[in-house]
Amino acid sequence: MTTTTPVAEMWAAVAPHWRSFAEYADARAAEVTAALLDRTDPQPGERVLELACGAGGTGLAAAARVGPAGHVVLSDLVPQMTTIAADRAAALGLTNTSSRDLDLQRIEQPDRAFDVVLCREGLMFAPDPGAALAEIGRVLRPGGRAGLAVWGPRESNPWLGVVFDVVTAETGQPVPPPGIPGPFALSDQGRLSRLLTAAGFAEVTVTELPCPMLDASFDVWWARTCSLAGPLAARLAAMTAAQRAALRERAREAARPYETPDGLSFPGLALVASGRRPGSISG
User: Fold this and answer.
1) Is the CB of residue 120 less than 8 Å from the CB of residue 186?
2) Is the pTM of this model over 0.90?
3) How far apart are CA 184 and CA 154, in angstroms?
């Protein structure tokens, strides 16, 4: 059973937009998803858990790997997100998936229940990532694999960093608000590696993966980013129309260095991490 938290409320507010942009999110993160699956190598017949699934793109891709004899659990802290993932699985006619509302810091699943755990762009929003990693280790079978992706440093991801900057400049208040972990909370490669090791994972690897983003225009980028970025939803909703217009113009100026003849071209950087629970299934 999940509980309502500021993080859950933040993402529940933008869940309808994640349904609308689900295909975009999968396409944008295709290389990250491929890297996670390559690292964890789900096999036919295995059980996979996707945490903080959002629209479920990573878990749906894993379902093709494990085949009809395997199973993928699509889970999120936010029931509205879990519903989106379940609806997408049903639309694809998948019979090897199910959905659960799960908090990645308190995963209500049995010990040693999964061969693979995946989490794409979710761990950084956990108030206690160490506790989340310990839970991931608990639900993995001996020899099981974990694949995690988070955003790299803010300065390496201006597609979102400049939005946070202009909102902070316009309102005088930091984004995300104090006490709520944001998208760059685990952007230090060394810290992420240490957290995995401290949680008991072996064969820990953390590597950088460039994720450039090209948008057709400023208008497209601005509308979609404001729609999907959970930390911004409440802040934007509280603004007057005049404030939102001023913010938009400030953002337009901040985005000018990334203008190209083909639209806006932003650099981006993800960190892809993996580890293995010590032991073997037979041992």
Assistant:
1) no
2) yes
3) 6
The predicted structure's pLDDT at residue 4: 65
What 3-state class would DSSP assign to 254?
A: helix
Which residue stretches of the chain are H helix? 6-12, 15-20, 22-28, 30-40, 57-66, 79-91, 129-139, 158-171, 189-198, 218-228, 230-237, 241-255
Residues 6-153+182-212+264-276, CATH architecture: 3-Layer(aba) Sandwich (3.40)
Taking only the tens place, the pLDDT of each residue in 98-149 is 999 999 999 999 999 999 999 999 999 999 999 999 999 999 999 999 999 9
> Token pair of 132, please?
């989340």
Average of per-residue pLDDT values in the chain: 92
Task: Of 64, 52, 63, 65, give the one whose Cα is nearest residue 25.
Answer: 52
Domain ranges of the chain: 6-153+182-212+264-276
